[in-house]
Specification:
By secondary structure, the protein is mainly α. About 65% of the residues lie in helices and about 0% in strands. It has 10 helices and no strands. The longest helix has 17 residues, at about 115-130.
Length: about 160
């Protein structure tokens, strides 16, 4: 079992992958008197740990890798670079101090022809990572909502 400080971070990392499709935006602002999602997840280090676990699971996932475009992308895109971009994006969209400078979700996923089945598999993996690190339910709901907000830019139409 992971330390309590790492649990929220892993959840955030999983979210980051899904968020790489988001346009660069200002960090989410927490209501007055409430910690940001970034702070509640434990900050940059726990986020990076979660992203690492999430990406590692996606890299070997048979359902996702059955898509030839995704399988080909695995050979072109270094895992370390993907993890960096996803961690930075998650940091930003959860209210942290990072600034994501990568491509939008639409730009980075358009050529991959991601299907509804692959999207659902990614969500299943994400939820499993969040559960592994016992991310609290409220934070899980926020992370899933952020990921779901990217679906239209990631899943190919008519899939």
């Amino acid at each position: 079992m992971s330390s309590p400080a790492l649990r929220p971070t892993l959840a955030l990392a999983a979210l980051t992958l899904a968020l790489t499709a988001l346009p660069t935006t200002a960090p989410a602002q927490a209501p007055a008197g409430q910690k940001s999602l970034y702070d509640r997840l434990g900050g940059a280090y726990p986020i990076a740990v979660v992203v690492d676990e999430f990406i590692n699971r996606l890299l070997v996932n048979e359902v996702i890798n059955a898509n030839p475009a995704i399988a080909a992308a695995r050979t072109r895109v270094p895992a370390a670079g993907l993890k960096f971009h996803v961690s930075t994006l998650v940091c930003q969209v959860t209210g942290g101090p990072c600034t994501y400078t990568g491509r939008t979700m639409k730009q980075s996923h358009a050529h991959l022809n991601i299907t509804e089945r692959e999207w659902q598999e990614m969500l299943r993996v994400f939820r499993a990572v969040l559960a592994k690190f016992t991310v609290p339910e409220a934070e899980q709901r926020e992370l899933i909502a952020i990921v779901e907000s990217t679906k239209a830019d990631i899943v190919a139409r008519g899939s």
